[in-house]
């Protein structure tokens, strides 16, 4: 089953109306655009999907809408991200009931423990929910870097189906790819780094989970197809194009973190006519004024507007 989770699997951005209700029409429009572009799967309720900002009710609303709109055309991964194990299991059970194809979980991130507790966390989720489980390695948010040996061990034991790596540690990811191969490739390894996907493919990654694909899915699909055809010139050219577009997250002033990153994605998608609004969840403010103009300039410079 885990071998079906490869290629380009964007973490789908969650659109909000001006009153911060869930904007289902924009959500559906983006899903259709992504599937039409040829993505290989969709990941809902990741960091880009505002999982950390969403109530249980909102999470269910998003997952139900996603399953209904995707209608089995591509695999659906659902982020089940919360502070501690029992809360994650609750989310995972609901995702399974709603029809998810796989679940994604981080390490626990409130009552911090050691790696023994982190490993047990993943084992308990696997025991509780009969769906492929992906570990989401994002230490900047959860204050724990998932070790290579633990991930490979959990893969060999059938606990983990794969890893979504957003660690920022490309050396560790390279070693993970190598050790995973030596172990017989029990894990599907996906990079979440929009600007270095070419390097991940060169090392042997199984796919990418680029938030920027919400803005331009075609470039990442083209890159994946080039990789499958051993067209390394095409892989690099697509990466150069994506890297220039990724500057939308760097040209704003006075904002940082989620507001600059996902805020830029939403603003670009509004400028492209995909989203009706670039509204952000509380307490994050939507980009406006000169920041919108700066993003618009990047889109024009790369030929998207």
UniProtKB/TrEMBL annotation:
Binding site for pyruvate: 209
GO function terms (MF aspect): 4-hydroxy-tetrahydrodipicolinate synthase activity; N-acetylneuraminate lyase activity
Keywords, comma-separated and alphabetical: Lyase, Schiff base
Cellular component, GO annotation: cytosol
InterPro entries: Aldolase_TIM, DapA-like, Schiff_base-form_aldolases_AS
Record-annotated active site: 136 (proton donor/acceptor), 164 (schiff-base intermediate with substrate)
Enzyme Commission number(s) of this protein: 4.3.3.7
GO annotation (BP), single: N-acetylneuraminate catabolic process
Source domain of life: Bacteria
Pfam family, one: DHDPS
UniProt xrefs under PANTHER family: N-ACETYLNEURAMINATE LYASE (PTHR42849)
Family: Belongs to the DapA family.
Entry protein name: Dihydrodipicolinate synthase
Annotated organism of origin: Corynebacterium kroppenstedtii (strain DSM 44385 / JCM 11950 / CIP 105744 / CCUG 35717)
């Amino acid at each position: 089953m885990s071998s079906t989770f490869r290629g380009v699997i964007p973490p789908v951005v969650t659109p909000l109306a001006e009153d911060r209700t869930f904007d289902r029409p924009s959500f559906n429009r983006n899903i259709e655009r992504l599937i039409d572009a040829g993505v290989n799967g969709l990941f809902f309720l990741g960091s880009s999907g505002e999982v950390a900002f969403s109530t249980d009710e909102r999470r269910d609303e998003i997952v139900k809408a996603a399953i209904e709109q995707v209608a089995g055309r591509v695999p659906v991964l659902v982020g089940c991200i919360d502070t501690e194990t029992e809360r994650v299991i609750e989310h995972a059970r609901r995702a399974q009931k709603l029809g998810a194809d796989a679940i994604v979980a981080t390490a626990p991130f409130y009552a911090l423990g050691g790696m023994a507790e982190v490993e047990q966390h993943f084992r308990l989720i696997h025991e509780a929910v009969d769906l492929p489980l992906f570990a989401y390695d994002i230490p900047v948010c959860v204050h724990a870097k998932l070790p290579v040996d633990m991930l490979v061990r959990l893969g060999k034991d059938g606990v983990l189906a794969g890893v979504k790596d957003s660690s920022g540690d490309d050396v560790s990811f390279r070693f993970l790819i190598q050790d995973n191969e030596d172990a017989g490739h029990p894990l599907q390894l996906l990079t979440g780094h929009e600007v270095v996907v070419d390097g991940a493919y060169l090392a042997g990654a199984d796919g990418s989970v680029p938030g920027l694909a919400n803005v331009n899915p075609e470039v990442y699909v083209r890159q994946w197809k080039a990789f499958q055809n051993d067209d390394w010139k095409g892989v690099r050219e697509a990466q150069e194009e994506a890297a220039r577009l990724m500057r939308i997250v760097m040209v704003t002033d006075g904002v940082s973190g989620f507001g600059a990153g996902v805020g830029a994605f939403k603003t670009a998608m509004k400028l492209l006519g995909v989203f009706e609004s670039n509204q952000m969840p509380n307490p994050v403010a939507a980009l406006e004024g000169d920041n919108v103009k700066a993003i618009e300039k990047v889109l024009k410079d790369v030929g998207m507007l």
